[in-house]
Amino acid sequence: MKNFKLLTLLLAVSLVSVSCLVDDEDKTLDALANTPYVVGFNNNVANESYFEDIGPVEKTYPVNLVGGMDGNPANFDIVVNYRISPESTATEGQEFDFLENTGQLVIPAGQDYGLFGLIINTGGLDPNTPTQLVLELESVEGGRANIGTINELNLLRVTFVGCNSQLAGNYTLTTTRDDGAQTVRPETITLLGPNYFETESTGLWATNGIGVSPDSSMNFEDICGDVFVPLQNLAQGFYSNEVYGVNLTGADGEVDQTTLDFSMDYWITFSAGNSQYNASFERL
Questions:
Q1: Which keywords belong to this entry (predicted)?
Q2: What CATH number is given to the structural domain containing 230?
């Protein structure tokens, strides 16, 4: 809803700027009210990790109204047509099944999102290689909304992971900033969830906190040997500075599956300019 309101507000500002030139605010408001809704996936990446057959598991993923009209939900159902993208490597009936195989998603009247449902076949995941379902939004019935394409709002990427990461443990960590500054310290990696981990430190800070924050940690994922640093706020959200991986379309590091040494590259945002870091973990 936050993004929906924000995009609508930005559109309103642009329209008001134009209307001031012609001194016609009524026409501006009318234009805003008649702007088509925009539909997309606010969260368009999901990782589903299972390492044993626990039977079928039902999961849902929201498809959102991300802009348009006056910032309020529609008073009618928005029916969205979708397809499985040719980019997909996962197979229906193997890794997943659809809850409703109609080729359509519905955002109900009065709501700013609808739910797309999958059944994950936990016994059908590849134990060595991740596979991916890419769902692509194509059109809206009756032309009553547009499909968003900025930042791949029209795509949902669900990665099925059957390989169980073993990165939890003790390491020697060497962190190098892009200006050459470097620290070397002992570091413990903690497992938070399936293939999802927490470090003790971030950047060149020590492990006993950043500024007045008592927490120095950051999170990352290991997907079958590929390391990903998701977007997060510094010191587990204590600060608004953002921490995120350098590669927007792929892995931010990799794991040596023999030694369990691994590395990752990430950015930290600062008002004076962002800094890039390389973190190299050597298993003890």
A1: Signal
A2: 2.40.128
Q: Are residues 7 and 147 in the same domain?
A: yes
Domain-terminating residue out of 161, 189, 219: 161
Please tell me whether residues 156 and 189 are part of one structural domain: no
What is the C-alpha separation between 65 and 72, in angstroms, rounded? Answer: 9
Contact call for residues 59 and 83 (beta carbons, < 8 A): no
H or E segment to which residue 27 belongs: helix 25-33
Rounded to an integer, what distance in angstroms lies between the CA atom of residue 80 and that of residue 38? 11
At residue 33, the pLDDT reads 53
Residue 58 CA to chain centroid, in angstroms?
20
Q: Which domain holds residue 150?
A: 2-161
Contacts of 99 by beta carbon, 8 Å cutoff, 6+ apart: 58, 117, 118, 119
pTM for the structure as a whole: 0.65
| Residues in the chain, pLDDT under 70 | 1-34, 69-71
203 within 8 A of 217, measured Cβ to Cβ: no
pLDDT digit string (tens) for 62-103? 999 987 766 688 889 999 999 999 999 999 999 999 998 889
